[in-house]
Amino acid sequence: MKTMKKIASLTLVLLLVLSLAVPALAAGETGSITIEGKAGYEYTVYKLFDLESYGSADKVENAPHSYTIATNSPWYTFVTTGAGKDYVTVTDGNADNRSAGYVEWKEGADPAKFAELALDYAKENKIEGVSQTAEGEKNADATVTITGLTLGYYLVDSSMGALCALNTTNPNTTITEKNNVPTIEKEAKETPSIGGTVPYEVIIHAQPGAESYVLHDHMTDSLDFNNDVKAYVRTVAEGGVTTDTEIASTNYTIKTENLTDDCTFEVEFKQDYLDTITTATNIVLKYSATINEEAIVILPNNDATLSYGEGNETNRTEKPEAPTPVYSFDLVKTTSKNVLLAGAVFQLKDSKDEVISLVLVENDVDENNQPIPAYYRPAVAGETGVTSVTTKADSVLTFKGFGEGTYKLHEVTAPEGYNSLKEDVTIVISQDNLAEVNHVEESGEGDNAVPAHYEYISGGVQVINYTGAELPSTGGIGTTLFYIVGGLLIVGAAVLLITKKRVNGEQ
């Protein structure tokens, strides 16, 4: 336990009162410590000193107490030659006509620091205490009573990670754990398409007494971690204005290998930093991931947990999730009579009016290994995509892997014989929007014949092209008459010329 134990214990410790001689205890008397704490956590008590005698029960608050420690106590070295000697004095029997082994608190000594050092000493020297776990639903308020304790001065610890108290069994005492369970929140700040970057935020609601905080973040295979974690302390001023102050990177480490579970990465805070947390503090972790092509079949989901306290693998927060869904939609090009049209060339643009590079995916399968009809998705880094797509008469065009937002369809070329669109078609994506089409068999005969075709039913993004009728003729003979008359005139002219030459020859 580190300095944070000092902070937590400041509000909990009842100072040692070592003073005048008082009535002796009854032989074999025992006491208990009741802890008002949290369910699911283990509480351990360590006996530091024996309580030789104490004042009358109706004056416990101010009554004198007399404490001793035997030379064979596991704590004797700690308080006589170890770190504890700066906080208490143990009589050696050579002064003031007092026997050896009496314990006195030094004036001005800090009980919180003493408790911290004592707990470190217990762990280092494997001193055994008496432990009991508070039963009930994890983190719910619960009470645990450890009984059968010989009277003395006890150090009480919690597996939540912060010191509970120093107190005296005389014969019974109750302490209340002031520590709060840390919690976390998680949010995806944007929901981009495949190939886009998702910024994430995790807020750790850290508590005084923080110990062994490790954030475990888990990403699905559809997310590529960008290894860009930074930590901040968030404060909220009047009016709700927030300020994020960066925490020096030396106060935490980021691990992507040799992890304790199947998470993607861990952020482990150094205890020296956690010891500086004296009030409830919001630690904000900011980082990002890139959505890859696996998002077609695997939801780009992200969750996290915080482990904390002693044996922190058993103390875990709830697991908030931050889903980043991507959506699909169908483009359906039709006539005004809902017949699918081929030959229309389109570009898909984003909200910035930039053309999106697309990759055609064929022969893909879903998570159940079932075939998926061909579709277009955004190209990812390193891929060469196409900037336009062409509609077909026998199927819709499916687009997958797009984030929530506004897009535009720009018609580059209209089908032959059809009018071009006057302006781009705006589409808003907030969920899947797929189309239903139906194959219509050939019917009728002669002038009433209807060829086989695909008919639009509903859903998707329908874009209609219109065509004007062929301009009608007048029904006259047109230029034919002029050709006939012209031919006759030419023949007449030729006959006239020949006749004239003959006449001139005869003369």
Outline:
Helices cover 11% and strands 38% of the residues.
Structure description:
This protein is mainly beta and about 500 residues long. The chain has 3 domains: about 5-175, no CATH class; about 185-305, Immunoglobulin-like; about 325-465, Immunoglobulin-like. About 10% of the residues lie in helices and about 40% in strands. It has helices at about 5-10, 75-80, 110-125, 270-275, 480-505, and strands spanning about 30-40, 40-55, 65-70, 90, 100-105, 130-135, 140-150, 150-160, 165-170, 170-175, 185-190, 195-205, 215-220, 225, 230-235, 240-245, 250-255, 265-270, 280-290, 300-305, 325-335, 345-350, 360, 365, 370, 375-380, 390, 395-400, 405-415, 425-430, 435-440, 455-460, 460-465. A hairpin with a 5-residue loop joins strand 24 and strand 25. The chain is rod-shaped and about 170 Å long. The protein starts with a helix and ends with a helix.
Topology, pairings included?
Blueprint: H1 3-10, E1 30-38, E2 42-54, E3 65-68, H2 76-80, E4 88-90, E5 102-105, H3 111-124, E6 130-133, E7 141-150, E8 152-158, E9 163-168, E10 172-176, E11 183-188, E12 197-206, E13 214-219, E14 223-225, E15 230-236, E16 242-246, E17 252-255, E18 265-269, H4 271-274, E19 281-291, E20 302-307, E21 327-334, E22 345-349, E23 358-361, E24 364-365, E25 371-372, E26 375-378, E27 389-390, E28 397-402, E29 405-413, E30 425-429, E31 435-440, E32 453-459, E33 461-464, H5 480-506
Helix pairs in contact: 1-3
